[in-house]
Design a protein that fits this description.
seven-stranded parallel beta sheet, 44% helix, two-stranded parallel sheet, alpha/beta, Rossmann fold
């Protein structure tokens, strides 16, 4: 039975939503976050307001690259399972500072795994990314596909994290699942991501930047479905495995903008720019393994998810 979960990146988009969900089930949650200045600290502080009011929640502010801090957390907390979400995020920014992405996403992950080994903690879910598939020609993307051709430092760092997880599973018999998330959206989405940026711009009558001709597409996955997948994985965690967590549908950039226009009731002002280095043309998840082995069943239709997101955005910005 899982009584105590440690979440790294606990004040972020996915981490804060996951913490709230676990707390509702009476599970103790300890969080680690360094409040990285990638976006405003106040956003993360707002994310965890509800959790901080719960006696089953505690937050430890610090950096996963600090091995002394990490080991102190593991020694004092003794969680049943680690859900490792902390990472330096963003495909495009990783092109300008790849060293920082490797420092956090690879060395930070190594610190977490090392502390688990030292303190006898055997279970972890690792947040990977659909970006590891690169410009995969075969669709939908399957966990058995070759992922040796990432097209951004961020994607390469996530692939490296998966390899470290397998190594620690092999050497120290840890149970680790790597979950490849596909373009997660919903309440508390990071401000640098398209749905948040576009919604904010459209509602404020600002231009949105469309990279390419709008035909690139993504497999958008609602946060509620991601949380469901994580919860399923917690209770099925045994051995080492990799699972796609997506919606298994694709939405083009042009279609996304059209849906945002529909639910904001406003017309987007578009500025077209060339495709950016590091971006992939399409993501599309084959979720057959997650369905059959975890019981994963995404349920939030995209238009419904967008409608709810815009309502949340308006309410939270009033």
């Amino acid at each position: 039975m899982i009584r105590h979960v440690l979440i790294t990146g606990a004040a972020g988009f996915i981490g804060s939503n996951l913490a709230d969900d676990l707390l509702k089930s009476g599970i103790k949650v300890s969080g680690i976050d360094n409040f990285d200045p990638f976006y405003d600290r106040s956003i993360k502080e707002a994310n965890i307001l509800r959790a901080m009011a719960n006696e089953l929640y505690e937050l430890h502010e610090g950096d996963i690259r600090d091995s002394v801090f990490v080991n102190h957390c593991f020694e004092s907390l003794d969680p049943d399972i680690v859900i490792h979400l902390a990472a330096k995020a963003g495909v495009r920014p990783s092109l300008s500072d790849p060293a920082a992405y490797y420092d956090v996403n690879v060395m930070g992950t190594l610190n977490i795994l090392g502390a688990m080994k030292k303190h006898g903690i055997k279970k972890m879910l690792f947040a990977s990314s659909s970006s590891v598939y690169g410009n995969n020609k075969k669709i939908p993307f399957s966990e058995s596909d070759n992922v040796d051709r990432p097209v951004s430092p961020y994607a390469a760092s996530k692939k490296a994290g998966e390899l470290l997880c397998h190594t620690f599973h092999h050497l120290y018999k840890m149970d680790i699942f790597c979950l490849r998330f596909f373009t997660v959206y919903g309440p508390r989405q990071r401000p640098d991501l398209a749905i948040n940026k576009f919604t904010r711009a459209i509602l404020n009558d600002n231009e949105i930047t469309v990279y390419g001709d709008g035909t690139t597409s993504r497999d958008y996955t609602h946060i509620d479905d991601i949380i469901q997948g994580i919860r399923m994985a917690i209770y099925k965690l045994q051995g080492f495995d990799i699972f796609n967590l997506g919606e298994s549908k694709t939405i083009s950039l042009n279609r996304l903008v059209s849906i945002l226009e529909q639910y904001t009731g406003k017309k987007a002002r578009k500025q077209y720019m060339p495709l950016q280095e590091g971006d992939v043309f399409q993501t599309y998840a084959d979720i057959g393994r997650a369905r059959s082995m975890l019981g994963y069943a995404p349920a939030v239709e995209f238009e419904s998810g967008i409608s709810n997101y815009i309502q949340w955005y308006r309410n939270s910005n009033e």
